[in-house]
From TrEMBL:
This is Integral membrane bound transporter domain-containing protein. Keywords: Cell membrane, Membrane, Transmembrane, Transmembrane helix. It comes from Limnospira maxima CS-328. It comes from the Bacteria. Belongs to the YccS/YhfK family. GO terms for cellular component: plasma membrane. Pfam families: FUSC_2 (PF13515).
Amino acid sequence: MNLANNHLFNFLLKFEKTIEAYRGIRAGIALAFPLVIGRLMGYPETGFYIGLTGVFFILGAVGGPYKIRAKTAIATLLAGLLAIGLGTLVSHIIWLKLLMTFLWMFAVGYAAVYGHPGIMTGIVTGILFLFTIHTPPGDIIVAGERMLIGLVGGIWAIALWFIFWPLQPYLPLKKAIADCYTAIADYIQVVLSNSTSLSVSELQQVKGWREKLQLAKDALVINRQGRRGTSEIGQAAVILIQDIEYLMTAISTLIKLSGIHRQNSENITVKILLNEAFKEIVINLENLVQKIRNQPAKFNCDRLKQITQALDEQQSFQRQTIGNQVDAYVSLISLVRLVEALNRLISLLERTYLVVEEMKPTTIPGENNSELSEITILLEKGDQPWFQPLLDNLSFDSAIFRHGLRLAIATSVAVAIATIESIPRGFWISLTVLLVLQHDFGSTFRRFFQRILGTVLGALMTPILTVFIYTQAGLEAIAIVSVSVAFSLLRFNYGVAVFLITVYAVTLEQSRTFENAWIATLRVIATLIGSGLAFMAAFFLFRDRQEQQFWRLATNAISCSRDYFQIVMMSYLSNKSPDYQAINKQRHQNRLAQFNAQISLQKLIDDPQTSQLQIEIALTLMTNLTRFSRAITVLIDQLNDFSGTDPHPELETFVSRIDLGLSQLETSLKSQSPLPPIPDTVTPSQQFQLYLKGLQQKRLIEFANREDETPTRQVLLDYSIVALEIEEMADYLQGMYHAVSQLSWRSQ
């Protein structure tokens, strides 16, 4: 059996491409300085606990805008001090100890309502609480002393946060914007390399750039809050973020139009030029990223303009040689539109570059600020009471609420086992539960194995190291280096980080007690017990069924795509001007629905109980749905050149049948009922294509007579690309039907 292809064990080979060196440096310094200073001043025990507390607080360091970082740091410090005080005062009464553990750990899990900052604050305060209740109990004086040590360690850690913050106050916002343009460049390369296959990487890239865009908007909201008028980067940041939307629309159009020529083996010159054009687009996007990050870069669209000019010459050449080849006319029209799209893209890139040049920490001149409407919406969205997320999720229907209960029960059981059985270092059991138990079973399953494997290997390595290095200073040096590297690798691979954290924990304990293999053995035993409790809690307690969750979100995504399709196609079927505000609103809703479905798809794939057939069905549906939406987006871009000519009746028939097909998919998934036969989209599509071919033949005669501006030409310009897209839409609908028809209730 090929391990890399086995779904159950793919997670062991899974690495995130993020190594956080700064976090590792902070953790090492947070531990080293207190240890050294404590020993020099004659208080090694105090120095040890200050350093240990500092490492815990470093774990809670979050990225993003400075305002978020500052709020998270303050909240973590205050909640951490409260955790230390409560843990000290209740640890001697077992029923009160278990009750407070349940309540506190529920709050730790429930803090996820505030997103990543809430999760990290919860983890740090949970660690401090669990660590304290496993120490000898004390009165109010002892609690005060421990809180003072925690305060010093927390302030020391927060000081390290600030020291490593860059001096540029707007760097987080700039970085968030730069990440968006990087994601677009990656998206181009992945989509082009997988243009004819169903690919997980394509969906991941779509999810990736949408996620980066939302992070950039969030960063802009944080930057704008509490300010009047334009901020220091003000209008520039607004324009750059909105240009991402326009850029993705233009690139989607280019990718779709270029597909016609890349699949045509006859016109090699156009294919070569298109490949060069995409390479230049990626290069210019990468140069924009460097400029946004204040790094030297040379931005130049001259090469892209030359390629566009060469494509325009190919267009003129095709006009002269087209003769009576009707099929070649489709290629000619797509080339016309492609040149237009490239020119728009070049203008957009040049405009973006000029805006980047103006991104300085001063107010940008100019009173006209029409782009700020979206920022107003974002600010209104973010301007809600701090307690609103708590109230919104205070229900068993909330996955976060259920996770809080699950975590509270599992850690309470862990504390009870360690207390009743008087297990040495019982803190390690409940700590393992806290760190292994995740919101979904798939992630818990992955951490379960990574935690055990990393701990066992670390426990085996540590006694070998201590044979050669056995002095207190040497053991502490190993601990400092281990925790530094471990914190750097936490997001790279949890299993590798756990291996180093085990070395850190065991050597640090040995530096104080000089026990050897016994400490490592206790670590392994505690990890096995804690991991087992976490696994059972994830499997048996209020388990979220990822399959049900995915199909609910996928159904919503189909519904939003249907609304998106309707509002765009109505612009072609009616004589009214397009309502771009309504279109963009529906596009945003569709993007959000697909983003949520794609996140759920990843969780479904990670769940070890998901069969290969279930993965293939879900992946087929989401890939076709994503490409269906991309086709709609291309039609939005074509509206810029749409003159409003009357549509053919068969186009209206096609639209109504696509709408019916999406409606049937939605109904089947909602009611878990058999899927009706797919509506006939082939006949109206073929009739529409025949209608256009007749016009193309007529247009060839007009070519011969040198007739330029004619009604025939305008109809073909308006609908030739539409005809290409609706053919693909029909194929994507067929793909979605094929996926849903394989679901188990079909045969019931």
